[in-house]
Amino acid sequence: MKRIAVMTSGGDSPGMNAAIRAVVRYGIKSGLEVYGIKRGYAGLLDEDIEPMTFASVGGIMEKGGTILRTSRCPEFVRKETRAEAAKILKKHGIEGLVVIGGEGSLHGAMFLEEEQKVPVVGLPGTIDNDIAMTDMSIGVDTCLNTVVDAIQKLKDTASSHERAFIVEVMGRSSGYIATVSGLVTGAEAVIIPEVPVNYEELANKLLEERERGKINCIVVVAEGAASAYTVARHLEHRIGYETRITILGHIQRGGSPTAFDRLLASRMGVAAVDALLRGESGVMTALQGGKIVTVKLDEVLKEKKRLDMELVKLAGMLS
Amino acid sequence: MKRIAVMTSGGDSPGMNAAIRAVVRYGIKSGLEVYGIKRGYAGLLDEDIEPMTFASVGGIMEKGGTILRTSRCPEFVRKETRAEAAKILKKHGIEGLVVIGGEGSLHGAMFLEEEQKVPVVGLPGTIDNDIAMTDMSIGVDTCLNTVVDAIQKLKDTASSHERAFIVEVMGRSSGYIATVSGLVTGAEAVIIPEVPVNYEELANKLLEERERGKINCIVVVAEGAASAYTVARHLEHRIGYETRITILGHIQRGGSPTAFDRLLASRMGVAAVDALLRGESGVMTALQGGKIVTVKLDEVLKEKKRLDMELVKLAGMLS
Amino acid sequence: MKRIAVMTSGGDSPGMNAAIRAVVRYGIKSGLEVYGIKRGYAGLLDEDIEPMTFASVGGIMEKGGTILRTSRCPEFVRKETRAEAAKILKKHGIEGLVVIGGEGSLHGAMFLEEEQKVPVVGLPGTIDNDIAMTDMSIGVDTCLNTVVDAIQKLKDTASSHERAFIVEVMGRSSGYIATVSGLVTGAEAVIIPEVPVNYEELANKLLEERERGKINCIVVVAEGAASAYTVARHLEHRIGYETRITILGHIQRGGSPTAFDRLLASRMGVAAVDALLRGESGVMTALQGGKIVTVKLDEVLKEKKRLDMELVKLAGMLS
Amino acid sequence: MKRIAVMTSGGDSPGMNAAIRAVVRYGIKSGLEVYGIKRGYAGLLDEDIEPMTFASVGGIMEKGGTILRTSRCPEFVRKETRAEAAKILKKHGIEGLVVIGGEGSLHGAMFLEEEQKVPVVGLPGTIDNDIAMTDMSIGVDTCLNTVVDAIQKLKDTASSHERAFIVEVMGRSSGYIATVSGLVTGAEAVIIPEVPVNYEELANKLLEERERGKINCIVVVAEGAASAYTVARHLEHRIGYETRITILGHIQRGGSPTAFDRLLASRMGVAAVDALLRGESGVMTALQGGKIVTVKLDEVLKEKKRLDMELVKLAGMLS
């Protein structure tokens, strides 16, 4: 193996740059040429590919987003498109590909490997923590801290007033961000896709707590469960006091990555290059019990990452 | 004068605690007894009043919100209610009142002084910067930095994607927060109550910038001008790419106050006590050209604070 | 078991309050009475003990330090002192003790259990990450992020100038904080107790990098390896340009805990109560491969936590 | 006037990039060509000069440091060197020069104008706030907030222990940073160049406060008054408990600039171009009473900026 490439694909997540840096620098130190593919699969199809150097990834680790940029590429679901992509990689002499992204992007990587025999290693990069077989994905820890900071600011003002605050956070199919951020900020309630919500019960709980003298009232809702507006509408007439809404949106994807995400991304980037050099393919790097391992992409993508329900219980118990 | 009281009223803003601390500690050092009134005018009517000590305001300066809590008190528009409030103050031997809050709260303070002859000094506390005759109100600087941090995080992800991001910030009648935060983050556009928006023109501007290679696209909108959803709806079909929404909400009121707000609040707290001791009443402390002065409350409340249109021009020119 | 107590001891670390909160709230929900012992073993000997309630731990999770305060208690090395402590616990009807602290504090806990048969569970709380058999201690993640933020600020100015910056961080016997913070900020060199430093070689490395065009130069040194001044003295005449020094000191112990530390502390607090209820004693809660388990205190304290030398290698390879 | 240049010189300060951006973009919009001179006067002498574009200053406003880099240039004290510099500017067709920096850099600018008749406008850029005739310099507000954050972290741990913490901050000839940061964090004492320190008295004050139950003890010292080690040595034996030291160093120069500094720098950058276009020279932009004005460089440099002793008094009174 003489030449590999790295790309980021799908939604960006903080730490992707640290992963790119690790792939490039460790690749070069391992005797490889490393290329960067811009804008994910779309850029690959446009042959938007350029050589990376030790210097070209200097000073990027601390930045949110991805210097390679990213995009969604719906046409990549077609087999012909993937064949075209494989041809382009071959044309550029690229013998191994590192793909950093979420579920959709890893699916693309899996097919590229299975059908087109392109040696591929995936890195789980998503703030949702919805990728199976890895304890954490790159970006989750930073996202959590961003959400926690935001809720903490709400608490300042919440304890000055008699109001309920509804905070909508990311998580289309996973309640991880909502659950953990609610747990570690002592939010009064968490609404997530994994657990059906009963607004009657929730309103009663809030009213009871209010009666016991609690004046803060913060409800964290994962976008996949309901919108903040829906929650507000359901609660307001039941609890009899005003609600206020915060929708964090893409702020949750940004920010300088935490130490945890930079370390995770660096270790995974190195592990991806090592895997390619060992001849592994169709795998994803994963954090399991503190160690970086590789797992089969097809197994990862068959499985649904389940939320640890102990966390949900804990959140309820301690708030 | 032997005994004074301090309260916070209306929406809270970061720095109110620093102001309370300064009133209490400087009051005590000046030989006064200082009382705290809880929950603004509502707490005053409930006689929720307690003596403050040097120690009771220890460790509060760095906290958002207000340890005295706050509330809106619609019944305070009635003259009889204010007469009742004056009676309660008299009953508790309170000869001077410091009110920290926004326009509505200062109106209450003015009437209390004019009708009931209660010696009153107001402090401008609001994140909107919509109080006339003072360059800055307590809380504005912290709010600005919170908004800037949030937009900066959006920029990370915005430059990875091809999307427009709409950020809704506070400012019911004033575009100050939107304008300055847009200016200092290089946002592509700012929509404020002071300037009518032309969506056609705005969309064209965004499209032109995109053509010139700019991939970031952030629009900051003051809640008083439009909702983020309205802006998104107007732009999406015109610009032809997706938009994403962030509504910061009450996060903008929270957070540990900046050095500027702590200093401003401390100086104003001291100035308020000095004013009462000098026999001034019906005044507000104000920052004018770097100095803390007192201005007549009725003049403050007659005037509408105007946004410096140079800032709007500057934002347009530099982005 | 009807009544337990919780204390923090030794150096404080961010997240201790989240652990206290979890012990108190989960203890109460489990039907126990929970007492707080102030100022560690010293406060225990002074019978500075008070009942805790659900409300008394409200709003503390986000705070650095420890609401129970802490102290070092050198006289606790004497057996008679520990016997006295056990008597006091008995007198107050305390049948189980949760001790949150570092190595010294856990030693005290172990002896209290072995000699005096007090049921004890320890929680590893230290920023140094020097406690064996647990992947992370409470406070390490927050400390790391504080150090990373500081180094990142240095990089801003470092890249504007031609200077070397020496940053002294905590770690008396462990180079964990120095190594990981150096790794994730791309520091040019890391000096730690585990690896002997050769200033001649180090200076040559820095000179070579300078020649290759690198203008940043940041060296992170663990206090246990050398002082920043020593490093500066050794480097300055060899590299021929000026150095500047930063000593972070106890800033590294402070700050609002990260999401990770709050979660870890909450889980460990719950696990400690569960262990006591199960009749376990002389154990410490530990994070092993993502799970919270209990391990024998005497085994923990016999073993020296070793720094993962892969991290050291990684830091060298990627910078 | 067809072509101007901008440079940063001396110690960097956060906000310099925002100033560069404003000069470049507003210059271009005003019909000028704008060049950037690298590494201050040293780069000018090396003809390290390049054209700047609207795009070349994109995404820099939020960064600490200066993209033009900076240096000290001792040989610029010689008249012949300055004549050489003027010749180089002429050779490159540069008809106006904007210099962003502290006192030394502005001196260079003044001589360049007086002797060599180069049209020059200075911008005050320094974290020390030691430049006369302007209320604030670019970088002061960011530095203050960095120091305040650091001290706030110390307070977390300080209130858990019985120790005194000495924090050394920047300020060679000015106690501004030390005074204001001490004031807004409630530090127990501040040691500054403007006021002689009496360690005996200081120790007594700390002991008294300790007796009254205060457990925090933080002393902020400006580097120009004493080193943290000196203060510790003087205090330790007098107060009888341990001290711990923090030396923030160049961290104080870094960090993403605050909203205030970005706004100040943007306004000053625009004002500098306007001044050149109006034919003004030998002036500095200054913030006076909320307005940006120009003042004569020779008057600025004759005067010593005095610390407002009201702030010192306030700090003493409120802590």
TrEMBL record, chains A, B, C, D:
- What are the annotated GO cellular component locations? 6-phosphofructokinase complex
Annotated active site? D128
The entry marks the following residues as binding substrate, namely T126, I127, D128, R163, M170, G171, R172, E223, R244, H250, I251, Q252, R253
Protein's UniProt keywords contain Oxidoreductase: no
Catalytic reactions on record: beta-D-fructose 6-phosphate + ATP = beta-D-fructose 1,6-bisphosphate + ADP + H(+)
Its principal location?
Answer: cytoplasm
The chain positions of domain Phosphofructokinase read 3-276
Binding of ADP occurs at R21, A22, V23, V24, R25, K155, G186, A187, E188, R212, K214, I215, N216
Q: Where, by residue number, does Mg(2+) bind? A: E103
Which SUPFAM superfamilies does this entry report, sorted A to Z? Answer: Phosphofructokinase
Q: Which domain of life is it from?
A: Bacteria
Q: Which cofactor does it need?
A: Mg(2+)
Q: What does this protein do?
A: Catalyzes the phosphorylation of D-fructose 6-phosphate to fructose 1,6-bisphosphate by ATP, the first committing step of glycolysis.
Q: State the NCBIfam families in the record.
A: PFKA_ATP, PRK03202.1
The subunit structure is: Homotetramer.
The molecule here is called ATP-dependent 6-phosphofructokinase
